[in-house]
Amino acid sequence: MSRHHHGSHRHLLASAPRPAGTARVDAIIVPTVRPPAYLRDAAAVAERLDCPLVTLSSGRYTSAARTMRGLGELGVELVAIDLSRHRPLPAPLHGPEFPRSTPLDCRADTAAKRNVGTLLATMTGWENVVFLDDDVVVPDPADLSRAAALLGSFDRVALKLGGFPDNSVVCHAYRDNGGADQATFVGAGAMAVAAARAPAYYPAVYNEDWFDLLGDDGLLRPTASVGAALQREYDPYGTPERARREEFGDVLGEGLMWLLDEGVSWQAADLDHWREVLRRRRRLVEDLLLRERRAPARAALLAAREQLKLIKARACHRFVEDWAVARKNWQAHLDSLPTGLTTARACAELRDRHPELAVHHQERRPAVYTLGDPPGTAAPYAVRIPRPEGGLVRFEPLTEAGIPALVTSFGQRPYFVRALARQESGHGVLLIAWDRERAVGTVYIWLDKAEEKRLRRRLPGTPLLMHLDLLPEYRDTGFGTMLVYVAEQKLIERGHSTVALGVDPDNQQAYRLYLRLGYRKWKHSPLPTTEEILHEDGTSERKPDRCHILYKTLSPFPSSLR
Questions:
Q1: Phi, psi of 130, deg, nearest 5
Q2: What CA–CA distance (Å, rounded) separates 415 from 342?
Q3: At what angle do helices 40-49 and 142-149 cross, to 10 degrees?
Q4: Which residues lie across from 105 on neighbouring strands?
Q5: Dihedrals φ, ψ of 62, to 5°?
Q6: Is the sign of the CA dihedral 271, 272, 275, 276 positive or negative?
Q7: Environment class of 550 (CB within 10 Å of its CB; exposed 0-12, middle 13-18, buried 19+)
């Protein structure tokens, strides 16, 4: 759409062969500002891969102590670290930045958190670490092991990021206004790093992970992309402040990638280059403002334009020069650290060297309860939930032999008999969560055409999740979340990329659950529907109903790429 913008840089990535095997992931590192509940997906993946989970917290809604309380029972080795809001980190950790009194300040500590994780990896000798954002879901944890297997040939291996597009505000506006070439690039939201051979370093600016991809030879580091991860939905235009914070880093990142796109070393970014980058950026934003009519998006673009006025070519040039020096100093700092320490000893060393950090460590506890299948099976999720008597929960489609147990738990024999008949004819799947021999949860995956005409017309071929049900004692424990995730994984395996469901307008608890799981309210919702009631005597009746329709993008990548 615009000659002033490169919508995609994916051609810069190396062509990676499908990994023949897997390799160990030594740790998963998650920077966060959200409550500990948002870390449960990452904890489940760390548990499945039998590796430590490192969380780095800051802000009002989270802390290392809360993380320990919220995740400590899950059976995963946990390192929880707080970054102080009142005591600044020393320069080796945050690298080049602008003082908070200047308008180009990023006001984010994501880079410093990832750098602290790199310190810990250096002292423990972890070779293959994964950086993972707290709003990214990894449907198949084995994809991270496959990415780690490629780190012998590549410095960085990212998972292909599907779900909601993870772009800057300006790039979102470009896509929304006809920029069909706008794609997502790889980043530290789901990235395996060769920590021992090529340690990561992130400057304090938006697009900090793009800087880490730049090699000392002026080219992109050897970087590949495999597997799949899903970005949860967010509102890019929710606040103009987001665009203001991003603009300087987005100018820098896009300006350096532009050179690589044209086969030129990023080290050729001189003052003339930055003047041209800023000229093109101004034209891009002005073009978007002429096209954009939505008030929130316009407010964000206006904030980006105002911030752009403050960015000068000399500031861009200086930042890149300072970053190159800081990266060399960072390597020297890493070389000065003790290595080969246990995780506990490395945490103690980190406390001694950086008293501004609060560092908590908990060894992996014996498992008390497992949600998921045993190691080595195909089930993609496993989390531990406190339960003194232990036990194993498995997910299986309905069989005739399972109907008595379902009726014992939930009643509704006519419903389950009907569901089995539909399943055998290929119209759907009833997924059951079993705790030993007890049926504790169900969800029906509707694979037939939707009964509602508007759904058939506007969401053709989209499967539906229906009748999610759990025994009372299994609610509010994570079971419902995992049952939905497993159902979604089954749909991905069948080649589906979207899913929809209906929620009673009065059921706010379920509505909030699905929003948290990445579902979006359909713009044509609420929708008149029909509820069918099956009676024990075999008769049925249909009543008019009304539902909010929610939908979700599962993944744009076919299973052959997973």
A1: -120, 125
A2: 55
A3: 60
A4: none
A5: -150, 165
A6: negative
A7: buried
For 199-234, b/e burial (b = at least 16 CB within 10 A) is: bbbbbbbbbbbbbbbbeeeebbbbbbbbbbbbbbbe
Expressed in angstroms, the distance from the first to the final Cα of the chain is: 31
Task: Please tell me which residue, 436 or 34, carries the higher pLDDT value.
Answer: 34
Distance, CA of 255 to CA of 492 (rounded, Å): 36
**Best-predicted range by mean pLDDT (35-39, 148-152, 424-428, 470-474):** 148-152
pLDDT one-digit tens code per residue, 211-227: 999 999 999 999 999 98
3-state secondary structure of 37: helix
Q: Given the structure tokens 């003339």, which residue do they identify?
A: 272
Distance CA 55, CA 77 (A): 11
Q: If we measure between CA atoms, which residue out of 177, 248, 140, 261 comes closest to residue 559?
A: 140
**Cis peptide bond upstream of 526, omega within 30:** yes
Whole-Å CA distances, 17 to 14, 150, 154 = 9, 9, 11
Q: Tens digits of per-residue pLDDT, 348-370?
A: 999 999 988 999 999 876 443 33
Pair type for strands 370-371 and 128-132: unpaired
Q: Which residues contact 293 (CB under 8 A, 6 or more apart)?
A: none
Q: How many angstroms from the chain centroid is the CA of residue 418?
A: 37
For 412, the token pair is 């509704």
Query: How far, in whole angstroms, is CA 451 from its chain's centroid?
Result: 33
Tokens standing for residue 304: 């980006």
Q: What is the DSSP letter of 151?
A: G
**In this structure, are residues 124 and 52 in contact, taking their beta carbons and an 8 Å threshold?**
no
β strands within 164-205, DSSP E: 190-194
Beta-carbon-side half-sphere exposure of residue 254 (alpha carbons within 13 Å):
25
Q: What is the DSSP letter of 220?
A: B
**Residue where the block lists tokens 């539909």:** 422
**Strand intervals (E) in 408-474:** 428-435, 438-446, 464-470
The closest of 309, 302, 319 to 266, measured between CA atoms, is 319
* Residue among 26, 34, 87 at smallest CA distance from 56: 34
CA 97 remoteness from chain centre: 26
How far, in whole angstroms, is CA 292 from its chain's centroid? 28
In 3D, which of 226, 219, 222 has the Cα closest to residue 256? 219
For the four alpha carbons of 69, 71, 74 and 77, in that order, the dihedral sign comes to negative
Q: Which helix (H) or strand (E) holds 465?
A: strand 464-470
DSSP 83: E
The Cβ of residue 420 has, within 10 Å, a number of other Cβ atoms equal to: 18
Burial of 139 (0-12, 13-18, 19+ CB in 10 A): buried
| Beta carbons within 10 angstroms of residue 184's beta carbon | 21
Distance from C-alpha of 115 to C-alpha of 195, rounded to nearest angstrom: 11
What φ, ψ does residue 240 adopt, rounded to 5°? -60, -25
Helical residues (DSSP H) of 72-134, grouped into ranges: 91-94, 110-124
pTM of the model: 0.68
Beta strands in 272-373 (DSSP E): 357-362, 370-371
The answer to whether 488 and 139 have CB atoms below 8 angstroms apart is: yes
Sequence length of the chain is 562
